[in-house]
Design a protein that fits this description.
single chain, 69 residues
Length: 69
Amino acid sequence: IRRLREPRNEIQVMQELSRVRRHKNENADMLGRRLRELLDTLFSVGTHSNKSYYEKMVIEQYTNNLEFQ
């Protein structure tokens, strides 16, 4: 369990990203905002030199959580 205001490392943010699920009453825009916050955090704490690596993962998570009708 992470204490309040304790900085997260890349692994913790990646784990959080993998657990992101769309809430029942959440629209796609709100989900996108939550994922964008995680992406911004990855950009600041991540060690991967190619930032598109993180972008691809976030886009994949976003599309996996959309419900097409």
